[in-house]
Amino acid sequence: MSTLNSSRARLGAGSLAVAGVLFLLYPVVRPYSDETTLAGARAMASSAWVAAHLFAAVGFVLLTLGLLALHLVLDRRPSLTAVVVTWIGAGLTLPYYGAEVFGLNVIAARALKEQDASLLSLADDFRFGPAAVTMFGAGLLLLGVGVVLAAVAVWRSGVLSRWSAVPLAVGFALFLPQFFGPPALRMAHGALITVGALWVAVELWRSRRA
């Protein structure tokens, strides 16, 4: 492998490894409670809430960078399509996370200050607003499609282990459904993505020596 490709593989491996860890920290650090109550307000107003959602936001950015490096190493058409689709998906998803990080945090802090749980209805007004929920859903679907395409490129490439990107693809295909599960399931989902991202990262790191 050329020095340039070796550098790409190294950067891609690092990006995916860190992204994998962040996607595990997201559901583990995130506080869970009934978000229609003042206990839910305390959760959303906490620094743990902000940190957890920022972990996810940074994870999406690093994922796209990791897939770009993967494409540059593999140089396959499905991997290029994967990069484009994933970038669009991340672009549609991140505004929603920004509101979760900052908007809901401010709403929850005001609810605590006023001791008025009814203010938390504003959170649902945002979360389930037609534009917001459509962008969010479309973004996560595109992220799933993009990572599946990346897994297809890895499978066909003969450069990395054929199965190495499958867990990551499964994890992102399940990203939207896992929101409807209990905390333990969401944490298990985060662990699946971590395993998948680290596996691809290891394969990329090994490829730089080929």
SSE inventory with pairings:
Elements: H1 3-29, H2 38-44, H3 47-74, H4 77-114, H5 121-127, H6 130-157, H7 166-173, H8 183-207
Task: Give the averaged pLDDT, no decimals.
Answer: 93
What share of the residues does DSSP label as strand, in percent? under 5%
Oligomer: single chain
Rg value: 18 Å
Q: How would you characterize the largest beta sheet?
A: none
Helix content: over 70%
Class by alpha and beta content: mainly alpha
The SSE string, one letter per element, is HHHHHHHH
- State the distance separating the first and last CA atoms: 6 Å
Instruction: Give the total of beta strands.
Output: 0
- The low-confidence parts are none
Number of helices: 8
Morphology call: elongated
Protein model, in words:
It contains 8 helices and no strands. The chain is mostly helical. α6 (130-157) runs antiparallel to α7 (166-173). The longest helix has 38 residues, at 77-114. The radius of gyration is 18 Å and the shape is elongated.
